[in-house]
Structures are given as structure tokens and as C-alpha cells.
Design goal:
The protein is an alpha/beta fold. Helix content is 39%, strand content 18%. It has an eight-stranded mixed β-sheet, with helices on both faces. Strands 1-2-5-4-3-6 form a six-stranded antiparallel β-barrel. Strands 7-9 form a two-stranded antiparallel ribbon. Helix 5 (233-252) crosses helix 6, helix 7 (291-299) runs parallel beside helix 8 (330-338) and helix 13 (431-442) packs across helix 15 (470-479).
């Protein structure tokens, strides 16, 4: 018995020796010479590249951010527990990236693309680098297709097109996130994939946002990338890039994507923290010198591709928080100069009950009418001028009691317009409703309606159109053109309802 066993063992050993292949793996290894605050200084990785992933001996990864003469500075993407001076670091020769797949839709992931919603792992189809070169001029196409936000004041006066970058700017608690949320909710059935990137937000705030999106059925086409306030500065720094990499994956499939960065002020602060720890020279407001490039290389990736290159688009809605309405601060001016327009929200208007609190004078869309449907363009033509005249007249007439008929009418018309532009949360309006309301306003239908009754009047008016004149609604929605006959019919129906 023992003899057989010996022979078996010998034959197994012989075959093992014959099949043995000598494999030598060459790994470039370095050593940590100092570590702290999520930053490691490494000696010995002479060939490491900027933005490359390195792996520490505990399994934690880091990104190369500083290239010195003899050392490199790495930011850690996890805990530095177990790492000390002398710990080993290995090059991966890969750029930092995120796993992407269609299964990301409806999920909440962190800055590294790992799920944090407790619904199990996500199978990756591809791996996209977080930093990617923006498409060149020749691969792009003009912005002509509207992206309806469902917010009357924005769609009529500062239209957003697919492939545009429109900044939402204002003080804290003025409804910036609410505008972005409404825009996402309004994409239902529009074949647009929405990505919401939360940078440095409280985890409870992100949970509330996910809850709102789920309640309105918007999570069926949305992805939430969250890097909360408790995360490392390095994770908050890469979060918007990770979100954009996911957006690019869908854009390459020819799809339209809407991405919201909430907010880039906190992103700049995270980058400042990281840069100061890496001992880079501070500039204005202690931000590093390349803080403009931080946001320009991010937002430049949003565009509309030519059909030859897939024809997809990324529309960006970056959010910036100002202090005391100061638009001339460092980060706000930077981002204003990168984007194609801004929606400026004002605290005074917000507290006066005008919500969304859009300042018509300081807001602008640099793509404008090019991205508006013909119907909306015609209906909203004189709206900004009417509001500007009202504002000017209001200042002049504050001190006078006796007003002539024309002035009084202009003031009443302005008041009814402002009342018309007020809109409750999470109630985006479809195109036909916006067009009908604007046509009625232009034709002074709301002029003698008391301000207090305006809300009920407009909802009853819309119900009247829906029940008795559905053909008008259908015509606006399908043709998206406003003819003179159509305007006549809309006005006629409104007058009929008024009687």
C-alpha cells in the first residue's frame, strides 16, 4: 500500500516539475517617506505619471498628484490605517477610472463607482478613465435641441439646449438644487439619462434627494454619484470627474445625458484642501493657481457630438454657492466665464415669495433662442422686455399716488406676469401648458384677475383646455409651432372660459 502511494507521489512530483514555468513579474516599487492627512510622499517611483493609480501594501489605492525631483505626492482614496514610513507602494500603470455599465441606472454610487445603496454589486461592462480629453471643435455640433426644464421662467427666458452648460448660481437656501431636481423630474419620457453628482453634501441631504427622485419615478433613468461631507477631500475632488466619465459612456452610445454638479464651490474647497496638503503654492483666496483649469477641463467635456461621432450629448448644470450675492468672487467669476450662461437666484426674491427666485436682469442664456421650439420662441418673445419695463416703472411709481391708465395697466400686467412665473416645487409644466399660459398673458387675459385668485384661475383654465379643447394641446405638442390662427383659438377659448 505504502509502495503505491510512494509511486503516485513521485509521478505527481515529476509532472509538477516538468510543467513548472518560471514567471518573473517586474513591479516598480517605492517606499513611503512621510504620510498624514490622506497624503503620502513616496520615494523610488521615478517613472510614475501624473494621475496614475498606485497601490499601497494595505490594498488602499492612491492617485499621483505631485511629481517632485526625487519623490512623488499621492492622495489616498481610502484610510491610511496600517500605513507607516517605510511601507511599500507599487505602480499599477493605469489611470484612475470608474467601472461603467447600463446597470448603473437607478443606483447610488460613490466617487469610485462602487454602490452605496445596499442593492448589491454592479457588473461593469467597461472601465472609463475619470480624466478624459474634451471632444474637439470638429467633433461637435451646434446646440439646437431644447432641454425642457419644465420651469416656466427658465424655458421662456433662458432656454437650455442639449449640450449646453448653464450655471445655477445664488446664495445658500435660494432653491438652486430644487431647480436642478425639477429639471431631472421633467426628463421623464424624454429619453434623457440624468446624473446627479453630490459633492460635500450631508448624507441625509443626498438621501432626501434620492427619496424625491424615487417618489416622482425619476430614479428609473437617473444615477446618483455621492461624495458626502464625511468623505476624504480626494474623493470629493474626483466625484464630478467620475460622474462625467459615466455620462461619457452613455453619450458614446448616442444618448442624451443631463448632469448636475451640486456644487462646484465645495469641489473647489476640496481641491484647495488637497493642494495645500500637497504643499502647492496658494494663490488668490488660498486656492492653487490651476483652480480655473480644475473646472474648465470638467465642463468642457459637456457638448453635443456630431452624428458621425455618435450624436450623443451631455448637458451640464453646475451649481455655485455665492456669499451675500457676490458674483465677483473668485470661483463664481471663473465658472461664469466657462459656462454658456447663468441662472442667478436671489435671496430677496426668494423671501418675497417669488419662487423660483430667478433674477431676470442678471440671468442669461448664451445659446438662447437657438435651443427653443418655435412655439415657445413666439410665445415668450416680449416677456423679458415686459418684466424689465415693469421693474423700471415700479421704482418710479413708488412715490406717486395718481397714475394714468397706461402706467396702471403696465403695472398690473407686470404683477400678473410675476404671479404667473411662480411655480411650486416638483411640479414641472409641459410645453403646451407653458405656451398657452404665455399666449394668454401676452393677450392680457390675466389683467383683471385678482392676484390672490391667480393660482386657481390658471389651474381651472388649463383644466378647461384639457377637457374641452384637447386638440389645441395636441397640436402644440406635436407640431411645436405657433401659428396666428392657433394664437387666435387659444385667446378665444380663454375669453370664453372667463365669461
Amino acid at each position: 500500500m505504502s509502495n503505491i502511494n510512494q509511486n503516485e507521489i513521485i509521478s505527481v512530483l515529476k509532472s509538477e516539475i516538468e510543467d513548472y514555468q518560471l514567471k518573473t513579474i517586474v513591479k516598480e516599487t517605492g517606499t513611503i517617506i512621510s504620510i498624514g492627512d490622506g497624503i503620502a510622499t513616496v520615494y523610488g517611483l521615478d517613472n510614475a505619471m501624473y494621475g496614475e493609480l498606485v497601490e499601497f501594501e494595505t490594498g488602499v489605492r492612491g492617485i499621483v498628484q505631485n511629481l517632485e525631483m526625487k519623490t512623488i505626492g499621492c492622495v489616498l482614496l481610502g484610510s491610511d490605517y496600517g500605513l507607516t514610513e517605510g511601507s511599500k507602494v507599487v505602480r499599477t500603470k493605469k489611470r484612475a477610472g470608474v467601472p461603467v455599465s447600463n446597470k448603473l441606472i437607478g443606483r447610488v454610487v460613490n466617487a469610485l463607482g462602487n454602490p452605496i445603496d445596499g442593492k448589491g454589486a454592479i457588473d461593469a461592462e467597461e472601465f472609463y478613465p475619470i480624466e478624459n480629453e474634451a471632444p474637439g471643435v470638429c467633433t461637435r455640433k451646434p446646440v439646437t435641441v431644447p432641454l425642457q426644464t419644465g420651469i416656466l421662467s427658465i424655458d421662456s427666458m433662458f432656454p437650455i439646449g442639449r449640450g449646453q452648460r448653464e450655471l445655477i448660481i445664488g446664495d445658500r437656501q435660494t432653491g438652486k438644487t430644487s431647480i436642478a431636481m425639477d429639471a431631472i423630474i421633467n426628463q421623464k419620457g424624454q429619453d434623457v439619462i440624468c446624473i446627479y453628482v453630490a459633492i460635500g453634501q450631508k448624507a441625509s441631504t443626498v438621501a432626501k434627494i434620492v427619496n424625491t427622485l424615487t417618489k416622482h419615478g425619476a430614479m428609473d433613468y437617473s444615477i446618483v454619484v455621492s461624495s458626502s461631507a464625511s468623505d476624504l477631500a480626494s474623493l470629493q475632488y474626483i466625484a464630478p470627474y467620475s460622474g462625467t466619465a459615466i455620462a461619457e459612456y452613455f453619450m458614446k452610445q448616442g444618448k442624451d445625458v443631463l448632469i448636475v454638479y451640486d456644487d462646484l464651490s465645495k469641489h473647489a474647497v476640496a481641491y484647495r484642501t488637497m493642494s495645500l496638503l500637497l504643499e502647492r503654492s496658494p494663490g488668490r483666496e488660498a486656492y492653487p493657481g490651476d483652480v480655473f483649469y480644475l473646472h474648465s477641463r470638467l465642463l468642457e467635456r459637456s457638448c453635443r457630438l456630431d452624428d458621425v461621432y455618435g450624436g450623443g450629448s451631455i448637458t451640464a448644470l453646475p451649481i455655485i454657492e455665492t456669499l451675500a450675492g457676490d458674483l465677483s468672487a473668485y470661483i463664481p467669476t471663473n465658472v461664469i466665464s466657462i459656462t454658456d450662461g447663468q441662472i442667478f437666484l436671489e435671496s430677496e426674491l426668494f423671501f418675497a415669495g417669488i419662487r423660483p427666485a430667478v433674477n431676470v436682469g442678471l440671468s442669461v442664456s448664451r445659446v438662447g433662442g437657438a435651443a427653443q421650439t418655435k412655439a415657445m420662441k413666439k410665445a415668450a418673445g416680449g416677456l423679458r422686455i415686459d418684466l424689465a419695463q415693469y421693474r423700471e416703472m415700479e421704482v418710479f411709481t413708488q412715490f406717486s399716488s395718481d397714475l394714468d391708465k397706461t402706467t396702471k395697466e403696465l403695472l398690473d400686467h407686470g404683477k400678473s406676469l410675476i404671479e404667473l412665473l411662480k411655480q411650486p416645487l416638483s411640479k414641472p409644466l409641459p410645453l403646451h401648458e407653458q405656451v398657452i399660459l404665455l399666449v394668454c398673458a401676452n393677450n392680457k387675459i390675466f389683467l383683471d384677475v385678482p392676484i390672490k385668485e391667480m393660482k386657481t384661475f390658471r389651474s381651472d383654465l388649463m383644466d378647461y383646455y384639457r377637457t374641452k379643447y384637447f386638440n389645441l394641446i395636441e397640436e402644440i405638442d406635436t407640431k411645436k409651432v405657433l401659428t396666428d390662427e392657433l394664437i387666435e383659438q387659444i385667446v378665444k377659448v380663454a375669453k370664453e372660459f372667463k365669461k
